[in-house]
Amino acid sequence: MGWGTLYELTLVLSLVAGAIALVLSLLAVEILRRSPFGLVVVTLTVVIGLFNLYHLVALLGPDLDLVVAIAKSVTLTGVLVFVALTVQMDRQVRSDTDHPGDR
Total structural domains in the chain? Predict the structure, then answer.
């Protein structure tokens, strides 16, 4: 098995695992829609979708270096937004538990 075949195999496995994770996160969105954690779950769902698109672009167009680089950049920007929202939500939850009577 050559490196090209191994590369394509790992991309296909990433797509399958990403599709499963996307379905599970969509189910979590339905459950956690109105909770404080809901926005973070929605953002995670979008990031998982971006990772799936990135892997699909990398699988179908390995010769399109610019398109793959742009897809990777957009995906990593989505990860940054997810991390920022998670930190913001954590700070909000911590401040709510520190001052429970301020509501």
Answer: 1
Domain assignment present for 86: yes
Per-residue model confidence (pLDDT) at position 9: 85
| Assigned domain for 80 exists | yes
Q: What's the confidence (pLDDT) of residue 80?
A: 92
In sequence order, which residues have a C-beta less than 8 Å from that of residue 18 and are 6 or more positions away? 48, 51, 52, 55
Whether residue 73 lies inside any domain: the answer is: yes
Helices (H), 1-103: 3-32, 38-60, 65-98
Positions of the chain with pLDDT under 50:
none
pLDDT of residue 67: 83
CA distance 18 to 24: 10
Domain housing 45: 3-92
